[in-house]
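Dear Dr. L.,

I hope this message finds you well. Following up on our conversation about the binding site, I have prepared a predicted three-dimensional model of the protein together with adenosine-5'-diphosphate. For your records, I am including the exact sequence and ligand specification that went into the calculation, followed by the structure tokens. Please feel free to forward this to your student if that is useful.
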Amino acid sequence: DLSNAIVAQDEMGRPFIIVRDQGNKQRQHGLEAKKSHILAARSVASIIKTSLGPRGLDKILISPDGEITITNDGATILSQMELENEVAKLLVQLSKSQDDEIGDGTTGVVVLASALLDQALELIEKGIHPIKIANGFDEAAKVAIRKLEGSTDDVALNKSEFHEYLFKAAKTSLGSKIVSKTHDKFANMAVDAVTAVMDEERKDVQFDLIKLEGRVGGSLEESSLINGVIIDKDFSHPQMPKQVLPKEGETGVKVAILTCPFEPPKPKTKHKLDISSVEEYQKLQNYEQDKFKEMIQYVKDSGADVVICQWGFDDEANHLLLQNKLPAVRWVGGQELELIAIATEGRIVPRFQDLSKEKLGTCKRVYEVEFGTTRDRMLVVEQGATNSKTVTCFIRGSNKMIVDEAKRALHDSLCVVRNLVKDSRVVYGGGAAEVTMSIAVSEEADRQKGIDQYAFRAFAQALDTIPMTLAENSGLDPIETLTTLKSKQIKEHTSVFGVDCLGKGSNNMKELFVVDPFIGKKQQILLATQLCRMILKIDNVIISGKDAY
Ligand code: ADP
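The resulting structure of the complex is given below.
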């Protein structure tokens, strides 16, 4: 902002700029700045911490306009908190990047990052330079990740069990969520959805082929996976059939997907259209009628059974469609139109003249579903066996909050399954992987010379926070749990022992099938360490525009 800048000249005639009001800017610097950052991060983490794990608690968030969200998802909690502090905002972005890249582990990454910052604060107070700490943490993270990679199990080695494994991993991720009572149903939905759209050879999952749709009403158990696309629309005329099946002798329902409106083109006159007599009005009406008929003829000629249209049409056109036995849907959004095109392998047609048999989509049937007594309807475009896949996870629940949280939970477990399809290596959950890494890093600490050994030990302690928090949230003694796990892991040379959050009577996460994808865990370590370095490097916060008083 140069409005309060003045160009002046010094005694040698050299120009320089004076910027006024700099004194009004708030500044914090040096150690004080770092401490205040870390304290801010700590207060954010303390809110998030109690949500970690299967026994984690939910939060209720109330937006300024009174809308209520109930959630257990770290990224969602953080994104809705109105944080003033700049560093706290960085934590929000941290959980968002974990969410964008991996989709799960958004609570864990924040807990880990703030534990690292806590540890860093202690080292700073001991007089160690922040950059040295950051460097030490980087090295320690490398050791941790190497160990993590070494302790993975590849679950795709046994093809017949892979599916089962996906299911179990999906179930773990749902453990702490509102849907935990309907675990199996949601885990199955996640696995079926991902396997339906995945490209097995390329180990790729195109996420946009999976649509999440929710509707208030019914219960979570009534949620289902729909083979195809479901849209929040109904047929344009109440007398149209509620279900369209293939014509006799045909294998599928033919769908015309249109982006052109059923609307006559405006008569091409340069002048204003004045209608001064009944005849003229009649003429215009006839012109419109003819145009409608022409359009409908194009559709008929192509052989379509159903018309799906991006635009609306008026009663006149609607009536003609009904007369011509062409069930139609209007005002279908662009994104949905695309999904329908993918699902039915049809083309989106921009002009009636362009319609042809080849451009029509094909599906098994198109039908309306009605909900409860509300006469609330949606439309399903169901795919046949031969279609390329698009699936919709359709979630029911008794109120909007539950539906929304169930959607988020399902999204997380879809991500877990996708991650495993992409990289089938898993590590053990319940803090088991963190304990293994912590042991490795502290062993390595003894081999470090100089300052790094402090950083290594601190890093190991930060990793311990995860199993300790899980224990605490499950009503177990954190320190006792941690020491037991460590000694068990060391004695038996394995990384399967974690916190028995649900009180199943076993610490063996392999037996309990509590697994987390390796790439997710690795990303947590990388992102948390990176963020910590970033905050440690800040030594000046300049908040412009605010008065310092
Ligand atoms: P995030 O948002 O980070 O994924 P969650 O609340 O989903 O947080 O908790 C995930 C943590 O809980 C992971 O460390 C996972 O291993 C652990 N966990 C999940 N289910 C269980 C279980 N049944 N027993 C022990 N730990 C579990």
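In brief: The chain has 16 helices and 22 strands.

With kind regards,
A. P.
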